UniProtKB/TrEMBL annotation:
This is Delta(3)-Delta(2)-enoyl-CoA isomerase. GO terms for molecular function: delta(3)-delta(2)-enoyl-CoA isomerase activity. PANTHER family: ENOYL-COA HYDRATASE-RELATED, OS01G0205600 PROTEIN. GO terms for biological process: fatty acid beta-oxidation. It holds the Pfam family ECH_1. Pathway: Lipid metabolism; fatty acid beta-oxidation. Coiled coil: none annotated. It comes from the Eukaryota. The lineage of its organism: Eukaryota, Viridiplantae, Streptophyta, Embryophyta, Tracheophyta. Its EC number is 5.3.3.8. It catalyses: a (3E)-enoyl-CoA = a 4-saturated (2E)-enoyl-CoA; a (3Z)-enoyl-CoA = a 4-saturated (2E)-enoyl-CoA. Keywords: Lipid metabolism. Belongs to the enoyl-CoA hydratase/isomerase family.
């Protein structure tokens, strides 16, 4: 499958909606990361961005199956692609909202939290940092992202060192997620788009939004900024 078939892009009013397509786990392979970056790059002129996904998963983290078969010299492309995508989101001149429509695990959880706001499905899905269960070390960049996005030490411990699965209601209670939405995937997407529309309606200067975002999460930006300009993106998806 070509990278630009891994996600769709549409405009809903002032909102640029990216949807990861299919019923799979949306594991973050270099191809999917490149496709999402391409879709983000196509958002010029929008007032806000929403990232969502079809199926049971928002994203089940890095594509470990790809890593097991890919040559060792290519392994850095997955980590670098993720850093580049986070850099793109941090310097994007508009508000961003994650519509967490299903399970968001490991790097998929971190991707959701890399957005300005997180709207999560209340009836299905967990935030889950699975590395402690899987016996996988967390790279410095992911650790820094979680440190800045989950500043409460107890919440961060429960996610990373206990590997707790957090429902939407629990994540809202702990201040990790902004809103839990009842219903199905489309209800979550509609709620995220509505939130994004509210933010777009404020008419903020996008460049100022981006500069404030980088200043608010400086250590993540410092570890990501050198990747955004260098990592190649796939051809733009069709609008």
């Amino acid at each position: 499958m070509e990278p630009n078939n891994l996600c769709t892009v549409e405009r809903r009013g002032r909102v640029h909606l990216i949807t990861l397509t299919g019923a799979g786990e949306h594991r973050l392979s270099p191809a999917l990361l490149s496709a999402i970056r391409s879709a983000v790059a196509a958002s010029a002129g929008a007032g806000a961005l929403v990232l969502s996904a079809e199926g049971k998963f928002f994203s089940n983290g890095f594509d470990q199956a790809w890593a097991r078969t890919a040559p060792l010299h290519l392994h850095s492309t997955m980590d670098g692609g993720f850093r580049a995508l986070v850099a793109d989101l941090l310097e994007l001149p508009m508000p961003t909202v994650a519509a967490v429509t299903g399970h968001a695990a490991a790097a998929g959880c971190a991707l959701a939290l890399a957005h300005d706001s997180v709207v999560m499905r209340g009836s299905r899905g967990f935030l889950f940092m699975s590395e402690v269960h899987a016996g996988i070390k967390i790279v410095d960049f992911l650790a820094e992202l979680m440190r800045e996005k989950v500043p409460d030490a107890v919440n961060r411990r429960d996610l990373l060192l206990r590997g707790d699965k957090m429902s939407a209601a629990e994540a809202v209670r702990r201040g990790i997620v902004d809103k839990a939405v009842d219903g199905g995937v489309e209800d979550v997407v509609n709620a995220a788009v509505a939130e994004a529309e509210k933010l777009a309606a404020r008419g903020w200067d996008g460049e100022v939004v981006a500069e404030i975002r980088k200043a608010v999460w400086p250590k993540v930006w410092d570890k990501a900024k050198d990747y955004g300009a260098d990592a190649p993106a796939a051809a733009r998806p069709r609008l």
